[in-house]
Write a structure and sequence with these properties.
Helix content is 73%, strand content 0%. By secondary structure, it is mostly helical. It comes from Tenebrio molitor.
Length: 244
């Protein structure tokens, strides 16, 4: 049940976060392999990027890649969150007083993150490539021209083989291990601190989880962003066809 809940929760969140991922992908691909100051700047910052995308491609462009993104986050987070909760419930993460043990939390979250990232790597690649597709005059990065999830799977497989579907998996795993470890460990430790030092949080599970999740998400973003940049570029770059 923990695996199912983790996946469904992530898919629900994706409906709201996918437009932000579209902006992030475009900003991260801008200026790829070009010297600083010697490339076109289509997107100045997140708000400007949203304006440019809507102006040139329409409001629906903010949800590009939504289909594969829903599946990707469902797969990755069902494994990541489900395995972490299972390990916690069975006493592998906390001590006898239900306090999070730091190194065990790191190992548990890293393991779950790595497994989820590996299984979801093909979907991450397709999501990235579909989010990067843009009108010609504001396009950044290689344009793969996918028309949908199934077509993208078929194209990548027939052009590059099974290995092509897991291109960039090593970077994706590293990215997710760092992000998951930072997110879940700081989330768990934050809950411990809040419950111990503030009476308000001792009587409100929802408020405690809400504040702790903000702390965990912030730490995840800080530590994961450099690896995310590398991962996005590896998954979107053009690759030579496999030889027959």
């Amino acid at each position: 049940m923990d695996f199912l809940i983790g996946g469904l929760a992530a898919m629900g969140a994706t409906l709201f976060s996918n437009p932000l991922d579209v902006l992030k992908t475009r900003l991260q691909l801008q200026g790829e392999l070009k010297p600083r100051g010697q490339h076109a700047v289509y997107y100045k910052h997140a708000l400007h990027a949203a304006y440019v995308i809507v102006k040139n491609e329409g409001i629906l462009a903010m949800q590009k890649g939504l289909g594969p993104a829903l599946l990707m986050h469902g797969v990755r987070n069902s494994i990541k969150l489900g395995s972490y909760q299972w390990l916690t419930t069975n006493g592998y993460v906390c001590d006898s007083e239900d306090r999070t043990i730091f190194y065990r939390s790191l190992l548990a979250s890293g393991f779950g993150g790595a497994a989820g990232a590996f299984c979801g790597s093909p979907l991450f690649q397709i999501t990235t490539q579909m989010q990067s597709q843009a009108a010609d005059k504001i396009a950044v990065g290689h344009q793969h021209g996918h028309s949908g999830l199934v077509q993208a799977f078929q194209t990548i497989y027939f052009r590059y083989g099974m290995q092509g579907l897991w291109r960039g998996a090593s970077a994706n795993i590293l990215r997710t291990v760092v992000g998951a470890s930072a997110q879940l460990t700081t989330f768990a430790k934050s809950k411990d601190v809040l419950r111990k030092n503030h009476e308000l949080f001792q009587h409100s599970t929802v408020l405690t989880a809400f504040v702790a999740s903000i702390v965990g998400g912030t730490c995840q973003t800080i530590f994961q962003t450099p690896f995310d940049l590398v991962c996005i570029r590896l998954n979107n770059q053009r690759e030579k066809r496999r030889s027959c």
